[in-house]
Amino acid sequence: MTKARILTGITTTGTPHLGNYVGAIRPAIRSVSDDAETYFFLADLHALIKCQDPEKIHQSTKEIAATWLALGLDCDKAVFYRQSDVPEISELNWVLSCMTAKGLMNRAHAYKAAVDQNTADGLDADAAVTMGLFSYPVLMAADILMFNASDVPVGRDQIQHVEMARDIAARFNHHFGETFTLPKARVDDNVAVLQGLDGRKMSKSYNNTIPLFLPEKKLRKHINKIKTNLLEPGQAKDTNDSTVFQLWQAFANEAQIADMRQAFADGIAWGEAKKQLADLINTELAEPRERYEELLADTAKIESVLKQGAEKARDLSAPLLANVKKAIGIRCL
Ligand code: TRP
Fold first, then answer.
1. Given ligand 1 and candidates 39, 146, 161, which is best to mutate, with the most ligand atoms within 8 Å of its CB?
2. pLDDT at res. 212
């Protein structure tokens, strides 16, 4: 059997938070093994869609790369690179654009959400919509098809885009002959979508996140800000609607989860539960946090890892792009 080729991208906007860690980074790093080929990349060209602040893009790229390395990503087994270091992706993006129905892009939900918002605000339907936002699923298809990925781990909001990549690949194959693997989205139901400080999904857009590598003191402060109900110490507490418990579950082992469930039934004080939660999270993150700080102080090291990753990526992308070009009739005379 051929190995699965797993590929996913991380858009370089913002600083990683606990939700990113539990929902995407930790499972991705754990999925690295000899039984699959894994490709992870910093989607800096995608970041331009949401952010036109050069300093922010630069800073975020650095932080996200340092995060993955600090958490122990095995770069001998996984291919870890920056999208913009692989020019073949941008070239493929254009070729795929010419194979993509505009009507398909009209249905992409990021674009549709922007149009709905504009309409609700009484603006022109396409106000402030760039071509980048409109055609972003094509770039994502190029990311995926460039490496013939078979499995693409994503959050629910990205399933549609992976299906579009599949449609685009099928259309290309039909027209020009078998060239691309048809990718599948992989959504892990066992992975928690973490709640943020206010109980809604932890997300930068809700401003309710706990950044991943806060210094310990600040981490404790953030955890103390998690919204709870007004039940007093000694009153039994419900695990089901508790953000504190949900976070506990994301970091604890089975025995610890059972203990905390019992403590809730016994009426543990919120302050005490939060203290134990902060201890637990800190235990998992203390070492990586040190490595993270070291890496941020040595960006040349990060850069060299990314450059090596790009070389490995291009070993694959260059011949594949050559095939594509041959297939479409762009070749030496
Ligand atoms: N668009 C994805 C997100 O916002 C990130 C991404 C870019 C991606 N290219 C990709 C994910 C290719 C998977 C495969 O989360």
1. 161
2. 97
User: Ligand 1 pocket test: which of 89, 143, 159 has the largest number of ligand atoms within 8 Å of its C-beta?
Assistant: 143
Count of H helices and E strands in the chain? 15, 5
User: 251-262 pLDDT, tens per residue?
Assistant: 999 999 999 999
In single-letter form, the type of residue at position 41 comes to F
Helix (H, G, I), strand (E, B) or coil at 93: helix
**Domains along the chain with CATH numbers:** 4-100+135-192+299-328 (3.40.50.620), 213-294 (1.10.240.10)
Our CA angle for 28, 66, 279, nearest 5°, is 75
166-198 CB burial, b ≥16 within 10 A, e <16:
bbbbebbbeebeebbbebebbeeeeeeebbbbe
DSSP letter at 53 equals -
